[in-house]
Amino acid sequence: MTESRGIIQDLKKDWQNYALMTPFLLLFFLFTLLPIVIAIVLSFTYFNIFTMPNFVGWNNYIRMIFDDDIFIIAIRNTFIFVLITGPISYILCFVFAWLINDLRAKLRAVLTMVFYAPVLSGSVAYTIWTYIFSSDSYGILNGWLTKTGIINEPIGWLSDTRYILGVVIFVQLWLSLGTGFLAFIAGLQGVDISLYEAGLIDGIRSRFQEVWYITLPAMRSQLLFGAVMQIVTSFSVADVSIRLAGFPSTQYAAETMVTHIMDYGTVRFEMGYACALACFLFALMYVTNKITSAAIGRIGR
Amino acid sequence: MASKRYARSLGSNIFVAIILLLSGALLVLPLVYSVSNSLKPFDEIFIYPPRLYVVNPTLDNFTDLIAMCSNTWVPFLKYLFNSLSTSASTTFLMVIISSMCAYPLAKNEFRGRKLIFELIVTSLLFVPAVTFLPQYFIFSGLGMIDTYWVIILPVLGTTLGVFLMKQFMEQIPTALLEAARIDGYSEFQILFKIIMPNVKPAWMTLIIFTFQQAWNNTTVQQFVFKEGLRTLPTLMTQIIMGNTMARAGVSAASTVFMMVPPILLFIVSQSAVVQTMAYAGIKE
After folding, report:
1. Closest-CA residue in chain A for B212?
2. Is residue A283 part of a domain?
3. Over its length of 301 residues, how does chain A's per-residue pLDDT go in tens digits?
4. What is the pLDDT of residues A193-221, one digit of tens each?
């Protein structure tokens, strides 16, 4: 362990570490951190982009909590995504990665690509899902349901407020399988084989025991990574909603925090308010992140 | 795997196979549909209910696409070159710079380590929807607008890469690094000769992510005004948007074309992701 001898000596001693980190930190500061700080400052202003921002103190936040009905809808929807699609997607990603990991190399490679396909498809995916869930009688789902006699009239999957959210949740789940899945596969590949052999000697007799006692603890770091990414994705759901349900969706049924932010920032030109919303979202994510990290730290113990 | 693990029952294997098959089918649906659409002759594209298979496959859509691309104001090859060069350099730089930063954060002790890592992870939590505007002012102030720099540099400042690499690097046994230091390795050498080979799955994954994002990146195009600097996705979007009914086949072909490089990269990298045996022999 190193003892601290004063800042300058420490910096000199560890210079290699700092040197390694410098390129990234410089770019990070300029292009990621600084914009965030500016955005936080802007949240205390009224800024319509065309004129200079003027300081309004806590007004934006007060308005957000007490005077914005759509905000409530947006929060509710965002929480639905975070609490439902988040964990489900995370678990599914892991389960599929785990199942596929054990196959022979070629089969595994093919299946990995299959499971990464949603991400590879890019924007085509939206087009196709819109087509499937289309609200007129030519939508594929409607067409099939009508043909088999289950319904008589086409259902407005993407326009009827009762169904919109469900459809968006489903497509979001479908989309979210790609990235976390890759990270988990990579992580599973890195687990030391001798741990499994030791486990066999120690009496492991089923897949599930193996996963809980050996695989998961060994992957704790990657699980944390997957969790953080999942949290960020779930809180940031916006594109899916816009492409499927419209911007805005019928009666804002599918409005999420980020679509709300985009609404105020790019449509209504109230950047200050949008930044306040973003800060609030950030606070929510931060708390969720802390809770989840603590939970993951407990896996297998 | 020939390792000594418990034997799995046949029933369990069949169950797994069925699940994988069903989910897999659902997942590749759009991809397959897209590819089959691009091969359909004009009279087959609008058949209802739509078919996944093609009765008379044809390459006409692709030849039409090439013809359309050759008529653009800026030569098609220039777009292709822009896309390839920016995506490739972004990916390459991203992996190097992120790994360089991730290594000290993962394994070494130094002043400010916790704070820096906290900052990095926390910044992931701020949505880009509002930061694009401050970013614009920063780009402008630095004179980056309308150059290749604005396409490449900002991405390198994002934190996903560092976070991913750091989590993977954490698991390398410190004993290995200590031994290297005793042998006189500098931190740079440790990073490139010891750590990177051992986290190959991690940077392979990072390469796939980064390339995919860079290749399909359209938001950065807002900051570029000279047509000669624009990348493929803009051209492709124009083609897709400008041709709905009459050229539906060409739209499908262009979508498929855009998907090809990431898929190729993916296939190549998957063959390199193999179980690492590096830790055998370390007695902790």
Report:
1. A120
2. yes
3. 455 567 787 777 788 888 889 999 999 999 999 999 999 998 888 887 788 888 888 888 888 888 888 888 889 889 988 898 889 989 988 888 888 887 777 788 788 888 888 887 777 777 778 877 877 766 777 777 777 777 777 777 777 777 888 888 888 888 888 777 888 888 887 777 778 888 888 877 777 777 888 888 888 888 888 888 888 888 888 888 887 877 777 778 788 888 888 888 888 888 888 899 999 999 999 999 999 988 888 875 5
4. 778 888 888 877 777 777 888 888 888 88
Distance from CA of A280 to the nearest CA of B (A): 10
Q: Take residue B227 and report the two structure tokens written for it.
A: 């047509």
Report the domain count for chain A.
1
Please tell me whether the peptide bond between B262 and the residue prior to it is cis, using omega within 30 degrees of 0: no
Inter-residue contact A24 to B162 (CB < 8 Å): yes
Q: Choose the closest CB to B187 out of A20, A27, A144.
A: A20
3 state DSSP class of A234? helix
3-state SS assignment for residue B77: helix
- Mind listing the pLDDT tens digit for each residue in B50-69? 677 777 788 888 887 777 77
Domains by residue range for chain B, with CATH: 72-242 (1.10.3720.10)
Interface with B, mutate which of A2, A8, A34, A36 (most B CBs under 10 A):
A36
> The dihedral of CA A253, A258, A259, A263: what is its sign?
positive
> Distance from B7 to chain A by nearest Cα, in Å?
9
Chain A residue numbers with beta carbons less than 8 Å from the beta carbon of B160 are: 229
What's the sign of the alpha-carbon dihedral A262, A263, A266, A271? negative
Distance CA A251, CA A79 (A): 18
Structure tokens at B56: 């008379």
> Are the beta carbons of B202 and A35 separated by less than 8 Å?
no
CATH number at residue A88: 1.10.3720.10
ipTM exceeding 0.90, yes/no: no
A223 lies in which domain range? Answer: 63-296
Residue A52 covered by a domain: no
Chain B residues inside the 8 Å CB shell of A189: 201, 273-276
The answer, for A15 touching chain B at a CB cutoff of 8 Å, is no
Q: Which residue of B has its CA nearest to A288?
A: B125
Q: How far is B146 from chain A (nearest CA, A)?
A: 16
> Is residue A227 one of the residues assigned to a domain?
yes
Instruction: Give yes or no for a contact between A205 and A121, defined as CB atoms under 8 angstroms apart.
Output: no
Is A1 inside a domain boundary? no
- β partners of residue A46: A54
Kindly list the residues from chain B whose CB atom is less than 8 angstroms away from the CB atom of residue A16.
186-188
Q: pTM (2 decimals)?
A: 0.83
- Structural contact between residues A185 and A112, judged by C-beta atoms closer than 8 angstroms: yes
